[in-house]
Amino acid sequence: MDGWSWALVCAGLAAAVPPLGAAAGAPASVPPRFRLSLTASMALPVEVRAAAEHEIRRIWRREGITVDIGSTAAFGDAAVDMRVLIVSAAAAPATRDGHQWPVAELLGDAAGQPVALASVAAARRVLDAARLADAPTTLVHRRLGVVLGLAVAHEIGHHLLNTTGHARHGLMRARIDAREFADLREGGFDLDDDAAQWARARLTRPPADALRLARFVYRP
Question: Of 126, 85, 124, whose CA–CA distance to 108 is shortest?
């Protein structure tokens, strides 16, 4: 995103708001695809990565977008929409713009392409704050993956909507309670109605080179 996202990553879109790829007259059988190249620290448990990838796909699937996750090499000649690096530890980011619990940050590489950096250490701080770190290892790993996945899904939202702003609820909010952040139950992190309606009217098929919308502006 624009900076570290603590709060990310609305209990569900209103029935009147169809998925992003379902604009009026658009073929529902051809959902937009977002190509995500994900590289994780060798020390990251496979269970954490699997939970993170599941969360990323699940959230954007609800919005009508299929997220393909792999390595840059795996996509061959296809353009990658975003690269994600999951690191074991990182310096604690400064909380700004009302952010709480920074876990991921959206940056750009030398060519200006989007790169999201997510920190396992930061995700662990969320579990510590929620008093959920003292649990069986399998459960801790799953929760870490959920937190990381929500954080990355939030950063994808910033890129797709081409915005640095935040919603009052849903996936794109900037503040969230730590226990809700690490909650294993689904729901509460859908795209807000304003962004979904705006995107629905514009996103029918992705352009050949990249999937991104014109700038969306959240109301103050």
Answer: 85
- The yes-or-no verdict on residue 70 having pLDDT over 50 is yes
Q: What single-letter DSSP state applies at residue 214?
A: S
Angle at CA 101, nearest 5°, toward 194 and 220?
Answer: 30
Burial class (CB in 10 A: 0-12, 13-18, 19+), 21: buried
* Tens digits of residue pLDDT in 151-187: 999 999 999 888 889 998 999 998 888 998 999 887 7
In the chain, what are the domains? 33-200 (3.40.390.10)
Look at residues 100, 123, 98, 104 and name the one whose alpha carbon lies nearest to residue 7: 100
Specify the pLDDT at position 44: 94
Q: What are the helix and strand counts (H, E) for the chain?
A: 5, 5
| DSSP string over 75-142 | GTTSPPSEEEEEES--PPPPP-TT--S--EEEEE-TTS-EEEEEEHHHHHHHHHHTT-SSS-HHHHHH
pTM: 0.81
The rounded distance, in Å, linking the Cα atoms of 126 and 179 is: 8
pLDDT tens digit string along 207-220?
444 566 668 888 76
* Number of other CB atoms surrounding residue 217 within 10 Å: 12
Q: Give me the phi and psi of 120, to 5 degrees please.
A: -65, -40
